[in-house]
Amino acid sequence: MTKQPFVNPYLGCEQRKTDVRVQTFVDTEDYEFLRLIRTNTGTITTTVNLLFKKLIDELKKRGITDITKRSEFEFFVANSKLVLEEEQTTNSRKRVKEAA
């Protein structure tokens, strides 16, 4: 697996007039949990933006790109699980061995 950098994929967007800001509320405990792991400034923004970009890329890859795919979108988002690529490969190999 290629190691990806911990870099905000939307860095610089705030300077363009056509981009938007996304805001949401989260539980204080969850916010502090991430802050305790990595105390650097920008950790929360970078984390959320990386996950947001990965979600967008995966939706496009799956062809979930408009309102006609609303059910697929909701199912995918509600049932997704974060798994490292190397763990996914290991689990796939285990399933193949078990099926044999």
Task: Give keywords.
single chain, about 100 residues, 4 helices, extended
Radius of gyration computed on alpha carbons: 17 Å
How much of the sequence is in beta strands? under 5%
**H/E series:** HHHH
The largest sheet, given as strand count, sense and whether it forms a barrel, is: none
**Count of discrete alpha- or pi-helical segments spanning 4 or more residues:** 4
Helix content: 40-55%
Count of distinct strands: 0
pLDDT under 50 segments (min length 5)? none
Based on Cα principal axes, name the global outline. extended
- Give the rounded overall mean pLDDT: 90
Query: End-to-end distance, in Å?
Result: 26 Å
The chain-level structural class is: mainly alpha
Please explain how this structure is put together.
The chain is an all-alpha fold and 100 residues long. It contains four helices and no strands. It has helices at 28-37, 43-61, 70-79, 85-99. The longest helix is centred in the middle third of the chain and has 19 residues, at 43-61. The chain is extended, with a radius of gyration of 17 Å.
Question: How would you summarize this macromolecular structure in one to three sentences?
Answer:
By secondary structure, the chain is mostly helical. The chain contains four helices and no strands.
SSE diagram, text form:
Elements: H1 28-37, H2 43-61, H3 70-79, H4 85-99
